[in-house]
């Protein structure tokens, strides 16, 4: 007789939606993964990627056993070894490096899972006890986070469950159809109820096509647009004076600053029309003044440029100027993560550090792996332990990253599900469990529910959870602190058990049974101010920024690479390139799932008809995209979805699955944003030429 059960789980991927899953398990085999119809934000719907999760879990190329490299680095040739041999080898190598200087060991991880347990818990404890270099996890969000927090104090904003009540939604720097599906559902409902949707994006994405209006500004000029909007709001008195007086600081200084951002200057900087600037400000301010909820959903596209932190800061000032926060469906959302009482101290145990080690920025891994030891840098990196990440595909300036990982003297361990581009450079590969095979607890960054993930099936092959790998390594390294014996359930029970002013009632067993629990947050978090900034107000003027050596007022910081900021470079490389997420991939995850890769076809580059004609490129021809950092090949799609002067290469392809073994990160740079030490993926000039096929 068949035994069938349905297990409550959570999508672990780097997506704001953090969906509640129902996994059907028949005789120990997961046969279906569906969205939980009762979870208020998932509402029974999953994206295409995760609705095919069993295809990924039981993929014929899953890594099921520990492996040791037998070919050259990058060749991807391995032989099977036992767990004992793998762990003994790793412990011995790390032990001898640590005896000289543990800072020569670098963990490299990001959001391959967003789980608080399989992400940074036992792994962080292990590296803290070891004294390894710390990793600055900047690759995605820290520029925007920093600008947002300087302005309103925390990554808190409009609740996802309110957006359907908004009357105007600015979708600023994101493509939610591809990467924030459950927000898009709400935005569509708002549209049905009469709301106007406006996309602000250099590219006419799937989402922009479905909005009432699309403002296609130049990449990296969002900060200028926000300044111009503030200029018009103030000049035309489309303001909430009472809200400004009670709940903001620095209005007079802001007024002076934005005076110079006339609609004409704004339009010229952004490459749009004066009317687009003025009409958007009038619509936004006018509707707010009429008492209508006006909302902004911004996303991380805005902040992947030189002035990315400031861009998010500037647009985060807008709701306070017009009093949009008074409404539950007004305000702005970048991320909801700041509402969660996550107990990182208990999970990660920074108190295990004997002394403060150096910090290496994951964005500059290319340069840092090639850096010799020095008094300034510390020891050269001798070992990298990669988990929940694929730096060969996702880190900028890829040829340097590859050269670093190709170092014969670098000891590299990778915990993975599949033989990714990074695995090809590993000395030891450890098979990791997927979300269906382990326990985890999750916060979210697009909604306000704490989430539980139960293990639905037994680990495939000899795969182990990350936590177990680091437990076993800790034992081999002789780490005796009892925290290295905590089980995954014990770790999950610490996830939200803070004991400070943000303490909540949190019962892990109850969460496991129910699957989710909403945080107790007010519907309109800043209706009466209460911003968690130093002043308690929305800070148009930020003394913290001044103290940190930054301009304390909203400003425009030009891209590193643009016609306006670097005309000499633009002569050689006249096209701006952005590389936003493809609909069927999630960063570099899912690229090896055949049905999803088939839906994407092959790497392509969207190019405007004027730009293709000037280069003699026809639709469907292969093109080489290049600059001083490198080049990659893609198939041209001639389309006015990309504005003239812009090319768009959807990402992030595995290099080995592209015909030239390269991807868009060959041409992106390791330069950092104005704040948050984050990457500038969308601050890239290139040239494009036809290649013979
Ligand atoms: S990737 Fe996002 S939309 Fe898709 S199932 Fe996961 S959380 Fe939901």
From TrEMBL:
Keywords: Iron, Iron-sulfur, Metal-binding
Presence of the UniProt keyword Metal-binding in the record: yes
Record Pfam families: Molybdop_Fe4S4 (PF04879), Molybdopterin (PF00384), Molydop_binding (PF01568)
Keyword set includes Hydrolase: no
Residues annotated as domain 4Fe-4S Mo/W bis-MGD-type: 4-61
Gene3D superfamilies per UniProt: 2.40.40.20, 3.40.50.740, ADC-like domains (2.20.25.90), Dimethylsulfoxide Reductase, domain 2 (3.40.228.10), Formate dehydrogenase/DMSO reductase (3.30.2070.10)
Alphabetized SUPFAM superfamilies for the sequence: ADC-like (SSF50692), Formate dehydrogenase/DMSO reductase, domains 1-3 (SSF53706)
Family indicated by similarity: Belongs to the prokaryotic molybdopterin-containing oxidoreductase family.
PANTHER family per UniProt: OXIDOREDUCTASE YYAE-RELATED, TRIMETHYLAMINE-N-OXIDE REDUCTASE
Record protein name field: Molybdopterin-dependent oxidoreductase
Organism of origin: Duganella qianjiadongensis
């Amino acid at each position: 007789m068949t035994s069938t059960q349905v297990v409550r789980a959570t999508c672990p991927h780097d997506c704001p939606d953090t969906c509640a899953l129902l996994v059907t398990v028949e005789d120990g085999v997961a046969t279906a993964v569906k969205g939980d119809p009762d979870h208020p934000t998932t509402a029974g719907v999953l994206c295409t990627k995760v609705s095919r999760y069993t295809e990924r879990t039981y993929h014929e190329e899953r890594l099921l056993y520990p492996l040791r490299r037998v070919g050259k680095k990058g060749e991807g040739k391995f032989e099977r070894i036992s767990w004992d041999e793998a762990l003994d080898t790793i412990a011995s190598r790390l032990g001898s490096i640590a005896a000289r200087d543990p800072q020569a060991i670098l963990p490299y991880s990001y959001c391959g899972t967003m789980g608080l347990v399989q992400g940074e818990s036992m792994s962080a404890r292990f590296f803290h006890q070891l004294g390894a270099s710390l990793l600055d996890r900047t690759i995605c969000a820290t520029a925007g986070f920093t600008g947002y927090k300087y302005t309103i104090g925390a990554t808190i904003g409009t609740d996802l469950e309110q957006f359907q009540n908004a009357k105007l939604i600015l979708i600023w720097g994101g493509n939610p159809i591809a990467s924030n599906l459950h927000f898009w559902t709400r935005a569509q409902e708002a549209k049905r109820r009469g709301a106007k949707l406006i996309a602000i994006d250099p590219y006419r994405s799937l989402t922009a096509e479905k909005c009432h209006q699309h403002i296609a500004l130049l990449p990296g000029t969002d900060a200028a647009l926000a300044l111009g909007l503030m200029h018009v709001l103030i000049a035309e008195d489309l303001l909430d004076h009472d809200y400004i007086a009670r709940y903001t600081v620095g209005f007079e200084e802001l007024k002076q600053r934005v005076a110079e951002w006339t609609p004409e200057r704004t339009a010229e900087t952004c490459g749009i029309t004066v009317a687009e600037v003025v009409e958007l400000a009038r619509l936004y301010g006018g509707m707010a003044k009429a008492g209508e909820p006006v909302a902004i959903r911004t996303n991380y596209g805005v902040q992947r440029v030189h002035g990315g932190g400031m861009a998010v800061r500037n647009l985060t000032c807008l709701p306070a100027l017009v009093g949009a926060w008074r409404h539950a469906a007004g305000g702005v959302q970048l991320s909801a993560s700041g509402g969660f009482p996550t107990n990182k101290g208990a999970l990660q145990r920074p108190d295990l550090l004997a002394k403060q080690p150096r910090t290496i920025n994951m964005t500059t891994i290319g340069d840092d792996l090639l850096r010799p030891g020095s008094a300034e840098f510390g020891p050269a990196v001798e070992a990298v332990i990669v988990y929940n990440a694929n730096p060969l595909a996702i880190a900028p300036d890829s040829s340097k990253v590859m050269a670093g990982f190709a170092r014969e003297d670098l000891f590299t361990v990778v915990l993975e599900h599949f033989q990714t581009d990074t695995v090809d450079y590993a000395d030891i590969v450890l098979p990791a469990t997927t979300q269906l095979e382990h326990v985890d607890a999750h916060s979210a960054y697009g909604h306000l529910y704490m989430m539980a993930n139960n293990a639905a099936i037994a680990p495939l092959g000899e795969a182990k959870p990350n936590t177990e790998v680091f437990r076993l390594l800790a034992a081999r390294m002789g780490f005796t602190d009892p925290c290295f014996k905590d089980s995954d359930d014990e770790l999950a029970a610490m996830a939200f058990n803070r004991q400070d002013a943000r303490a909540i009632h949190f019962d892990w067993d109850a969460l496991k049974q129910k699957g989710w629990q909403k945080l107790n947050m007010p519907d309109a978090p800043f209706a009466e101010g209460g911003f968690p900034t130093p002043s308690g107000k929305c800070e148009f003027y930020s003394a913290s920024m001044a103290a940190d050596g930054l301009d304390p007022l909203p400003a425009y910081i030009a891209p590193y690479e643009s016609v306006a900021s670097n005309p000499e470079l633009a002569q050689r490389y006249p096209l701006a390139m952005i590389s936003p997420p493809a609909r069927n991939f999630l960063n570099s995850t899912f690229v090896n799932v055949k049905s999803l890769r088939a839906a994407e076809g092959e790497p392509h580059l969207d190019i405007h008809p004027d730009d293709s004609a000037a280069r003699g490129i026809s639709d469907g021809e292969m093109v080489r995209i290049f600059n001083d950092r490198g080049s990659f090949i893609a198939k041209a799609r001639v389309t006015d979805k990309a504005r003239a002067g812009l090319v768009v290469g959807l990402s992030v392809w595995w290099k080995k699955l592209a015909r030239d073994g390269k991807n868009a990160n060959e041409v992106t740079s390791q330069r950092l944003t104005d704040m948050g030490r984050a990457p500038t993926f969308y601050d890239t000039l290139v040239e494009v030429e036809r290649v013979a096929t």
